[in-house]
Request: fold
Amino acid sequence: MSRMSRVGAAAAIVVAGVLALAWAYSYGGSADPGVLDRTGPAVTWGLPLGKLVFNLACACTIGTLVLAVFALPRNAPVQAAALRFAGWSATVWAAAAAIYTGASFLFIANRPVSAGFGPEFVSFLTDVEAGRAGTLTAVMAAAVALACFCLEGPHVAAIVALPAFAGLVPLVLRSHATGGAGHADATTALILHTGTAAVWIGGLLALIMLRTSLPARRLSPTVQRYSTLALICYTALTVSGVLAAVARIRSVDDLLSPYGVIILAKAAALIGLGVFGALHRRWTLKRLDRDPHRAAWPFLRLAVAELAVMGAASGMAAALARTAPPAPVGAPTANPELLPEPGIWAYISQWAPDALWVLVCGFAVFFYFAGVRRLRAAGRSWPAHRTVLWLAGNAVLFTVTNGGLHIYQGLLFDTHVLTQMMLTAVVPLLLVPAAPLTLAELAIRPRTDGSTGAREFLTGTRRHFLTPLGRDPYLAVLILTGSVFAIYYSPLSEWSASSQLGYSTMTLLALLAGCLFMQAVTDPRNLDTNPASRLVLVLAAGVLYEVNGWWLSTQAFTTETPWSAALSPSSGTPTSPVAGSAGTIMWSTAAMTLGVVASMVVARRNSATETQTAKTGRPGSKETVAAERLE
Reply:
């Protein structure tokens, strides 16, 4: 029965994928050879079929590794089986990448398979972007396979998962050209969409393939953990897919085009997968809890049917990648000529949703409320002001990353500075006092089988990164300084203005550096309760912003320039960065936020000292005051 289920699962996803690919590829018109096409059917159909095998093998690799880290018990035989399955999947992934790259060369060169490759193929692999991306992907997939077969240890899956995810990036970047000002490209959304699909599809297939290596008593908790992953992936796929579809389909005629019909078919498959997920949560999981032996077979049947729908969606996705969209990617506001003159109203009224940061803010709010609810259900309270701060911080983060600042920061340097200061100073000032890590440690149940859940990951993060910063908070100032120099004086500055991926990298760097600094300065767990040392850190940060703001204000490109003069009359694109008030923005924002931080440091110290004096009649020592502040 177990062998039958594995064969059925593999056959369901492959057969459904091929059939859906054949329909979508033919319906979309990509299967029809052009007048000058000389490649033949082997290349015409080899490209989408190679991409389908590539996607499925990549999903099996990534999904299995993530399942091994998050859901499977550590130091168990199933871990070794998971690494073997991921290794073989990565081997197929590397072969599919090589075949896809070869077919791409034949398609670009417009020659059939019988004509061979010749010396031009070597030049294609080394000099052409498509060839370099395919070669890099094949090498990375082969390296992942080698690591899965050769490495041993409890953390191998976590270590190998990182390069496996990185293996997605080259062909994603190749398949979607970066935009420009306004961040009209959807590179980050496509990476997010592809990565979450891989975890979802590959995780379910791996769960079936590894069923015989998993003890019956471990099936229910493993399926429940995968169900949590699947729900997160489903949400991410829905949001990123809808935003990508809206960027390409802007009218009813576009929706009724071949591209739009395939999108509708994919949407129907996604809705069907949501129904399967609901059935698993309402029916399968409960039966597995009661009787894992008898419920295993109904779970497998439902999972195989779900894999068939996943395969169909994957086949349509492979065909859609080679189907001409009815409209170019990007929102109309990506054209600077269509934007109003920048100002407070423009920053508020203009919107350019970014799938990554929509999901980050949405999940942050959802899980925070879930943690507060779990604490209250257990009879414990949580300060209301922390919840308010968390909501306010995420509202500001959402506005910065999806509103007018998101658009204008690629066009105006002073808006870029304002964006960076909001992410580095204002948002951490709201998020860090909300104590999300403390809430997570109180609300999330620890695991006992050695697997890595959310609590274990966050606890390790606090132990290995935040606690050392608490002991040596001067390191946080060095990290903040490094982030400022990277954002303004490295290629990241130009990259963040011209690429959505660069913008997301800049956003993450600024946000992390600001949160680490704020945590190191205001963390009540620091035993060094003397505020003088932390006030020195605040002063050091002020000096950093003062010097950097002065430097920006003295540059030639920061002269005051009206919005109309920032655009080329012929092309409608900025002729040069404009930053009439960059230094002033940095100084004023830093003064406001650092003043609040200094007040918090002094107020917390005074509050802890007064509390200790009221209880004992004498001021407390460092240790007693610090202990008091933890209560």
